[in-house]
């Protein structure tokens, strides 16, 4: 029907209001687009609760699931073609926020497909449409006194059968994406097709209609009424009503996060399209808009419909997947819902801002949230499942499924030492067993507080000789769990440790000297303030009693060495600052840590920086006053790009390491900085190169993953150098000179390591 100049419908779309069916477009291939325009935006189906995608690490049972139900079939950035053909394709991997993406990268997600071209109807097709339009008017003619039209329509149907009129045209197979008049229902093949008219649009706008602003449901009197069964006035009335509803939605809509560069590109396509706002063009635009959202990690965004383009502006209505609620479900080992011990504010503190209600759901933020929750150490597994909100259409409910660890634990580990005897035969060093007794109580009161302890001895039957213990109490959220402006943790520990002293070690050219052990009994209390997930600052006092002992547990005041005559000389450097073999000291300790490392398939990537200071207070034996400081910097450089995932090989890594340590003031020999050992110039024994008041070391290591006999392995090569900068004479008694050590040294090596790549560093 042509629009007369005075026809009130002349400024409106003469067919059904342009809308977009997200479900049909989702289930159809996109190259070229096949689905027809739906009658209205479909309601969101109730999805199953089974997760459909695992984007986490299988090793630690951490998963970030894709979106079930109507969220399936999204475009994957790295495999677009495969995703377009599969309606159950996984959600795209997490990527950066769109604000940080460069324009040319934004446009890369909007690859152009052949844009649907308009096609003029053949005379036979137009004639068939006219015949069907006249024939279908019989059911409506009586409503308006139009019996002559019904008779005339029947006469035309008798003279010109519609099937014959279409026979010639049916020989040509229409191109589905170029047919601007095709509808998804077979009943629209006649009159409705004739009434469709493509309206030219020269502007494009994308609006976020938010939550609950979907297309209105049909009125009761129109629920079962097809368009071809309506009169012109009924169609006009419905169209005007839907136009008003569209204006109300747009008026209250918020700006889309779609970048301006992408909007301008789509506007250019709409403007240059000669066939107007055809259904094929709408499908193409909807596909391109959704693709950009999914490429950027906004997996729940979808185009719900298009506004009327009669004003010259094509308005694309998008529900971006706004988070309406965050819910938590605690599960037991069998998957049953139980009451959790952990308080919800403890978990909510770990959520990034982008995963809170009012923000748009993003896969990258979801993955980050799961990692932060796992870092609490309270859960054996953590899963995140986004679900459509049944209360507010278009909203997303973020649901966490958590399995808590047992809060209490206890254990006993025993061992016997084996030493070689005559002719190298292995024999038990002692029939008395050694071992460790440990216990722990975690997540006290559901606030992540913990009390742990351990007691160890080489003789569990009589542990008084070499008993060592460590008891720790940790109290996070010192400023309150609800206060998120600061994140401070209080920790206190009571300890008794025994370690071998690397300062009193002879050069390999000398006779071995009896080992010296340093016992430390003390109390430590500190506060750790976490600035970000990667940086923290720790500070607090330390009180210690240090005792130097020999292998028979006797107190030693001086070091010893073997004379050429074979006698043992006890005229070595003093073992303690007081000279009595026992020191008591109090000092303040602080360290600043910045750790930006991550693990890519088991390999460490990133950089780590640690700065530590110990400041003596002049309290203790002979009132020691000193300042010890240390700076350590390590950088792990990825040499090749490697995709993350279970079973994927790790990348090759180049590790660079540097460390400087120094001391001024009163420095006891047991705190002198030792050079040599597994963490300082590898290839030498601990302290073999010397000890001093200063130290400088540099190292580099190349790590290359290989596969040997179907087993994962790593080839590595390293080179290291360390020196005490000639500062050994500053240590009382100069143990480096006394034991004839060099004071500096270098090492290099090549090796291979089998098994899982660990978290080692230079």
From TrEMBL:
Domain Bacterial surface antigen (D15): 458-754
BP GO annotations: chloroplast organization; protein import into chloroplast stroma
Keywords assigned by UniProt, alphabetized: Membrane, Plastid, Plastid outer membrane
GO cellular component: chloroplast outer membrane
Keyword Plastid: yes
Residues in Toc75-like second POTRA domain copies: 204-322
Pfam families: Omp85, POTRA1_3_Toc75, POTRA2_Toc75
Gene3D superfamilies (alphabetical): membrane protein fhac, membrane protein fhac: a member of the omp85/tpsb transporter family
Subcellular location(s) of the protein: Plastid, Chloroplast outer membrane
Protein's UniProt name: Uncharacterized protein
Organism (species): Panicum miliaceum (Proso millet)
């Amino acid at each position: 029907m042509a629009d007369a100049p005075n026809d009130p419908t002349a400024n409106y779309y003469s067919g059904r209001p342009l809308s977009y069916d997200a479900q049909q477009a989702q289930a159809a291939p996109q190259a070229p687009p096949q689905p027809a325009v739906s009658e209205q935006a479909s309601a969101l189906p109730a999805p199953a609760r089974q997760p459909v995608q695992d984007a986490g690490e299988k090793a630690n049972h951490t998963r970030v699931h894709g979106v079930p139900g109507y969220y399936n079939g999204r475009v994957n950035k790295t495999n677009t073609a495969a995703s377009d053909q599969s309606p159950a394709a996984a959600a795209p991997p997490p990527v950066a926020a769109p604000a940080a993406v460069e324009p040319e990268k934004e446009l890369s997600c909007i690859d152009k497909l052949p844009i649907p071209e308009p096609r003029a109807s053949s005379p036979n097709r137009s004639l068939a449409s006219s015949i069907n339009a006249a024939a279908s008017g019989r059911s409506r003619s009586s409503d308006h006194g139009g019996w002559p039209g019904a008779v005339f329509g029947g006469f035309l149907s008798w003279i010109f059968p519609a099937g014959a009129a279409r026979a010639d045209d049916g020989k040509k197979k229409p191109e589905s994406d170029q047919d601007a008049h095709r509808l998804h229902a077979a009943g629209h093949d006649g009159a409705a097709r004739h009434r469709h008219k493509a309206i030219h649009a020269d502007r494009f706008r994308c609006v976020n209609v938010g939550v609950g602003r979907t297309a209105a449901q049909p009125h009761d009197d129109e629920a079962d009424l097809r368009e071809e069964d309506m009169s012109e006035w009924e169609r006009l009335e419905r169209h005007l009503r839907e136009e008003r509803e569209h204006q109300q939605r747009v008026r209250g809509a918020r700006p889309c996060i779609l970048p301006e560069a992408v909007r301008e590109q789509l506007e250019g396509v709409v403007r240059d399209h000669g066939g107007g706002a055809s259904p094929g063009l709408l499908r193409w635009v909807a596909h391109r808009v959704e693709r950009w959202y999914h490429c950027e990690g906004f997996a729940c965004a979808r185009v719900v419909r298009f506004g009327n383009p009669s004003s010259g502006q094509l308005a694309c209505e998008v529900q971006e997947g706004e988070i309406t609620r965050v819910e938590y479900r605690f599960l037991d080992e069998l998957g049953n819902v139980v009451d959790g011990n952990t308080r919800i504010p403890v978990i909510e503190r770990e959520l990034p801002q982008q995963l809170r209600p009012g923000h748009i759901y993003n896969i990258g933020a979801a993955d980050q949230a799961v990692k932060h929750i796992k870092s609490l150490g309270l859960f054996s597994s953590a899963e995140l499942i986004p679900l459509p909100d049944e209360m507010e259409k278009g909203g997303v409910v973020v649901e966490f499924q958590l399995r808590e660890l047992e809060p209490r634990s206890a254990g006993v580990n025993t061992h016997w030492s084996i030493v070689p005897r005559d002719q190298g035969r292995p024999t038990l060093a002692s029939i008395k067993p050694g071992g460790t007794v440990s216990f722990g109580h975690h997540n006290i009161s559901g606030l992540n507080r913990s009390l742990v302890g351990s007691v160890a001895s080489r003789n569990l039957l009589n542990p008084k000789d070499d008993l060592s213990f460590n008891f720790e109490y940790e109290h996070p959220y010192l400023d309150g769990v609800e206060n998120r402006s600061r994140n401070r943790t209080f920790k206190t520990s009571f300890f008794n440790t025994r370690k071998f002293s690397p300062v009193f070690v002879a050069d390999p050219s000398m006779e071995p000297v009896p080992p010296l052990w340093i016992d430390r009994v003390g109390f430590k209390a500190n506060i750790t303030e976490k600035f970000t997930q990667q940086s923290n600052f720790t500070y607090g006092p330390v009180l210690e009693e240090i005792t130097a002992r020999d292998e028979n547990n006797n107190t030693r005041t001086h070091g010893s060495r073997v004379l050429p005559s074979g006698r043992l000389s006890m005229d070595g450097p003093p073992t303690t600052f007081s000279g009595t073999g026992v020191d008591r000291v109090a000092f303040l300790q602080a360290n600043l840590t910045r750790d930006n490392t991550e693990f890519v398939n088991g390999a460490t990537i990133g950089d780590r920086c640690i700065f530590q200071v110990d400041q003596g207070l002049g309290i203790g034996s002979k009132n020691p006053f000193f300042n010890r400081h240390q700076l350590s910097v390590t950088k792990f450089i990825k040499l090749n790009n490697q995709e993350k995932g279970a079973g994927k090989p790790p990348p090759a890594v180049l590790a660079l390491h540097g460390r400087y340590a120094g001391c001024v003031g009163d420095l006891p020999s047991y705190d002198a900085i030792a050079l040599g050992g597994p963490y300082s110039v590898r290839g030498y024994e601990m302290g073999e190169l010397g000890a001093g008041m200063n130290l400088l070391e540099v190292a580099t290591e190349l790590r290359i993953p290989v596969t040997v006999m179907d087993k994962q392995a790593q080839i590595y090569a390293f080179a290291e150098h360390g020196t005490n900068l000639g500062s050994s004479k500053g240590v009382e008694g100069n143990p480096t000179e006394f034991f004839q050590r060099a004071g500096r040294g270098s090492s290099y090596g090549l090796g291979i390591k089998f098994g899982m790549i660990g978290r080692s560093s230079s």
